[in-house]
């Protein structure tokens, strides 16, 4: 549904990655739209620290944890803050978002916060690969 091509190295063919256009909201502030990778391997929704700083968030004041594997460092501190994510043009969800200084991409949408709000289907065997997303209804 939202296929995008990403090129890692010029000599390599473009690799497909499931991307969504999002923006973050925090205390009446909002980022411009930017790409986020949908990643079932990530336990959390993680953003570059610069995204939070753009919103005026004091990153290091958040709840601290340690993350490994997706930042430029082997292990790095991640700081969590409550934000709203505007997903594409359709949906708004509230999540505890982690902010990391060394994240190599702007945003990663992970299991806690994102996957528990949406049904996601990837099919890399199709040509072109595809990605479908459906909001899970909230039962009150």
Strands in their spatial order, largest beta sheet:
2-4-9-5-8-7
Rg from alpha-carbon coordinates? 15 Å
Provide the number of structural domains. 1
CATH topology: Cathepsin D, subunit A, domain 1
List low-pLDDT spans: 1-9
Q: Structural class, from helix and strand content?
A: mainly beta
Name the average pLDDT: 87
Q: Any idea what the CATH superfamily is called? A: Acid Proteases
How far apart the termini lie comes to 29 Å
How many strands, which pairing sense, and closed or not: the largest β-sheet? 6 strands, mixed, barrel
**What is the number of E strands?**
11
CATH class: Mainly Beta
Examine the secondary-structure arrangement and name the CATH architecture.
Answer: Beta Barrel
The helix/strand order is: EEEEEHEEEEEE
Query: What percent of residues are in strands?
Result: over 45%
Number of separate helices: 1
Instruction: Kindly state the percentage of residues in helix.
Output: under 10%
The rough form would be described as globular
């Amino acid at each position: 549904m939202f296929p995008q091509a990403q090129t890692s190295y010029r000599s390599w063919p473009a690799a497909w990655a499931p991307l969504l256009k999002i923006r973050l909201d925090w205390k009446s502030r909002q980022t411009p739209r930017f790409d986020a990778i949908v990643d079932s391997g990530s336990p959390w929704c993680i953003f570059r620290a610069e995204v939070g700083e753009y919103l005026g968030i004091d990153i290091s004041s958040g709840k601290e944890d340690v993350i490994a594997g997706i930042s430029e460092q082997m292990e790095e501190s991640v700081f969590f803050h409550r934000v709203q994510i505007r997903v594409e043009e359709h949906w708004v969800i509230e999540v505890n978002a982690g902010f990391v200084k060394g994240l190599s991409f702007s945003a990663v949408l992970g299991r806690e916060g994102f996957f528990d709000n949406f049904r996601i289907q990837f099919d890399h065997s199709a040509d072109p690969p595809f990605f479908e997303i459906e909001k899970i209804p909230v039962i009150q």
